């Protein structure tokens, strides 16, 4: 008889999210994988804001000259990510996965790479830029794949085979 394998400490799975349909697919994949591996999940939403170029968070930005993001922006985005995670976990069923939510201002690839330093896997969608911010996963996924020091999964878009 052999002894059962000794569990090794495993870092969380990091998933990029921006509220897009592709990010939801990546989140679903990451939740399933975290459940299978018995590890936690870190949902990361990166956003950028500049007074001359708004991207994604217009609905949380104050209007007028010299205006910037409203002070509650991070709270609003964090709550939107938490709501999405909760909904997806309910759809998947089974025991819930522990989820840490990280919402940071900055270039999406850079934020994801920083958030995944202690992770076991990084998951991104193939493209993004949804209602929660500029997480342009076309260019972001390419950059992440080239610079991550851990395995990366790029979740492709689901295609409706009935209409193909």
CATH fold name: Rossmann fold
**What overall geometry do the principal axes of the alpha carbons give?**
globular
The ordered string of helix (H) and strand (E) elements is: EHEHEHEHE
Q: So, the CATH homologous superfamily?
A: HUPs
Give the rounded overall mean pLDDT.
79
**CATH class term:** Alpha Beta
Number of strands: 5
Distance between the termini: 52 Å
The class by helix and strand makeup works out as alpha/beta
Low-confidence segments, ≥5 residues, pLDDT <50?
A: 52-64, 130-137, 160-164
Largest sheet: 5 strands, parallel
Characterization of this structure:
This protein is α/β, with parallel strands linked by helices. It has one domain (13-155): HUPs (Rossmann fold), CATH 3.40.50.620. Helices cover 34% and strands 16% of the residues. It contains four helices and five strands. It has helices at residues 21-37, 73-92, 108-115, 137-147; strands at 13-16, 41-47, 99-105, 121-125, 152-155. Strands 3-2-1-4-5 form a five-stranded parallel β-sheet, sandwiched between helices. The termini are far apart. Mean pLDDT is 79; it is low at 52-64, 130-137 and 160-164.
Provide a quick synopsis of the model:
With 164 residues, the chain is an alpha/beta fold.
